[in-house]
Amino acid sequence: MGAAETTRTRRRAIPWLLLALWIGVLALASPFASKLADIQHDRMTDYLPASADSTQVAKIQDQLPGGRTTELVLVYHRDGGLTAADRHTAERQVAAVAGRHELTGTPRPVPSRDGTTVMYPVASNEPGTDEKKRDALVDDVRGVAHDQDGLTVQVGGPGALSTDAAGVYQSLGGPLLYTTVAVVAILLIVIYRSPLLWLVPLVGVGMADYLSTGVAYGLHQAFDTQVSGQSTGIMTVLVFGAGTDYALLIVSRYREELRRHERPYDAMRAALRGCGPAVLASSGTVAAGVLCLLAADLNSSRGMGPMGAVGVLCALAAMLTLLPALLVLSGRRVFWPLVPAFGSAPKARRSLFSAMGSSAGRRPLTVLASGAVLLGALALGTLNLPGQLKQQDSFVDRPESVAAMETLAKAYPERSAQPIDVITPADRADATLTAIGATRGVVSARQGRTGEGWTEIAVIAFSPPQSAAETATIKDLRDTLKGSYVGGTSAQRMDLEDTSARDRLVVVPIVLLSVLLILITLLRSLVAPLMLVAAVVAVWGAALGIGGLVFGPALGFEGTDPGLGLLSFVLLVALGVDYGIFLMHRMREESLNGAEPAAAALTALRTTGGVIASAGLVLAATFAVLTNMGLVQLVELGGVIAVGVLLDTFLVRTYLVTSASVALGRSVWWPGRLSRRPDPVRPERQPETV
Q1: From edge to edge, which strands make up the β-sheet containing 117-124?
Q2: Per-residue confidence (pLDDT) for residue 690, from 0 to 100
Q3: Is 440 helix (H, G, I), strand (E, B) or coil?
Q4: End-to-end CA distance of the chain
Q5: N or C: which end of the chain has fewer CB within 10 A?
Q6: Long-range contacts of 381-384 (CB under 8 A, 24+ apart)
Q7: Closest CA to 279 of 297, 304, 254, 298
């Protein structure tokens, strides 16, 4: 066998070996992938930092006799006033609950002044730290305590709120995955106009998503990373969004190279040499950006860092190995009916991006100034963003626990139905009770369990949960009770807001610096990276501004999640720079081939504009899937990122970056060698317009 034949045989074997390798890797990951849902936790304390007062309270409560307490409130209400039969029904149902479950005390009725409502606080240590047992307890209590003869019965309290939130997160897995797959499939069919080609990238990202769940589980076992419903949802969206983007770029370049190379293997090698560096750099930028979340104090944000990076890197691995193998094995026929024949030339046509580039090239400064003014005007919408999101307002559809809170707020305006938990050293319990009683805004305080050197005290405030007055009471308690911890649901929301503010100050500069260093290394320039970073920051501000114009006035949301600013910033900067890399890498390639700066910019836009637009649509659509989920924070995050990606794709990359590059000329590559002198002209290729 000759050397040439041996080489051809080896090349034919490589795609099959890569495919076999992926099958083996997925088989190894399979036992772990199915376990990821089992380690997912969505308690508020799982999101907070370990140093927070409310986190310390929750940890100590778990160590007290009986372990973690699940607190519920059974609410009985009739608009015209409770009847004797209603009160008898309430007593009977509460007794049935006490007979079926181990409660920490005998439930006592607390009637409202207007006679329309009676509530029974109920607490149980039966579930302990097992969230599934907690959910089972809540479901069983709801089965026993139900409406009867016009009497409205609702089960609320912190335990019921946690169960309702967990139910939404647990429902994300299937619907989120299926909806994302359907959206990506439809867009790929429209983009490729082929009955076969769309399946190849979809199979690739599907396998990458499956692998990422197994790797994420292994990461948790090795490093105890935080896994929440939010982080697993974002990981899935990143795999499908980023993976499809890389597939679009690779397939576009592969189609281009098939016209120049007879064998698909050679065409794929050329395609990967041409766009591989851009794909590697863009994925590295996204991974580095989300890994900066490790500097966050918030457990949920810190856990999302490695989860997001795992998703992006699994997508990268699949797109650089599995996707090329599948394409090469499929041959040219996978492009049917638009098969790129060897030696053929693409149809000459004036694309939309040619027209956009021409307009940006004629008046670059005018286009640049107009775009900057538009983004600045949109960013003013951030002034209209609603305040911090309360826990009861975090559901798109009002669950029973929220309805119970609303009923209690109307029936008991003189007191809170949600206790503030205080943990104090056992030898200072009496003094702490006295100090609590003297604190402004406190109705009552009751001593609870004692153990491990600590005593639990339940404090009832005058003001409704998470109101400004209750927040002031919690702050006064923390200032007064030195050496004690003040927690509970409302205190957890306070700690969440405070920690989120701290994380923004720390993480944002780290993200900007990391992304900037990667861009400087890739583009060998300082001006171009600064331009790209400034552009994505402007897009982030404009996207948040649009959120301010929509969330409250149009959607009726009562607040924004404290983590919205940080998470949307990290994801938009990382993903936005992604597209900037696609464009600027091609622009640099054209400049190295001898093109003048303006021609290089316009050629880069013409050749990559279609791919960037397609990728932007896919990425925006995948994040838009989150807006169909049941939690306001996911709707807000998905909406801001989807809008930001569309702004970045169709305004910033096409008009502003191109016009800025034309206006700056060779200075865009300063201080690299491309900024100092023209390079020797190399043979130019005629790139295919996508």
Answers
A1: 110-111, 117-124, 70-77, 152-156
A2: 38
A3: coil
A4: 41
A5: N
A6: 381/544, 381/545, 381/546, 381/547, 381/548, 381/549, 382/541, 382/544, 382/545, 382/547, 382/548, 383/548, 384/548, 384/549, 384/552, 384/553
A7: 254
Structure tokens, 292: 């900066």
Q: What is residue 131's predicted lDDT score, i.e. its pLDDT? A: 82
Contact 573, 515 (CB under 8 A): yes
Q: Per-residue pLDDT averaged across 347-375, rounded?
A: 75
- CA dist 657 → 104, 534, 584 (Å): 64, 10, 9
d(CA 294, CA 224): 13
Q: Please state, in angstroms and rounded to a whole number, the distance separating the CA atoms of residues 213 and 682.
A: 46
Residue 65: cis peptide before it, omega within 30 degrees of 0: no
When computed from its CA atoms, the radius of gyration of the chain, rounded to whole angstroms, is: 29
The stretch 22-27 carries a mean pLDDT of: 94
Q: Select from 445, 493, 422 the least CA-distant residue to 64.
A: 422
Non-local CB neighbours of 673 within 8 Å, separated by 6+ positions:
524, 679
Nearest CA to 279 out of 570, 531, 585 is that of: 585
pLDDT at 598: 83
Instruction: Give every strand in the sheet of 454-461, ordered side by side.
Output: 442-451, 454-461, 420-425, 485-487
The reported pLDDT for the residue numbered 354 is 62
Q: Which two tokens stand for residue 626?
A: 């989150």
Whole-number Å distance between alpha carbons of 357 and 367? 11
- What distance in Å separates the CA atoms of residue 139 and residue 557, rounded to the nearest whole number? 28
Q: Tell me what the mean pLDDT of segment 216-221 comes to.
A: 92
**Element housing 661 (H / E):** helix 658-664
| CA separation for the pair 659, 657 (Å, rounded) | 6
Q: How many C-beta atoms lie closer than 10 Å to residue 28's C-beta?
A: 11
Cα angle at 675 between 673 and 676, to 5 degrees? 70
Contacts for 34 with CB less than 8 Å, ≥ 6 apart: none
Q: How is residue 56 written in tokens?
A: 């310390």
Q: What per-residue confidence (pLDDT) applies to 683?
A: 43
CB 416 within 8 A of CB 461: yes
For 556, what's the count of Cα atoms within 13 Å in the CB-facing half-sphere? 4
Contact 277, 585 (CB under 8 A): yes
Measured CA to CA, the distance from residue 635 to residue 547 in angstroms comes to 11
Burial of 395 (0-12, 13-18, 19+ CB in 10 A): middle
Nearest by Cα to 87 from 99, 74, 76, 72: 76
What pLDDT, on a 0 to 100 scale, did the predictor assign at position 42? Answer: 72
Cα 404 to Cα 117, 282, 359, 488, 633, distances in angstroms:
11, 48, 58, 18, 21
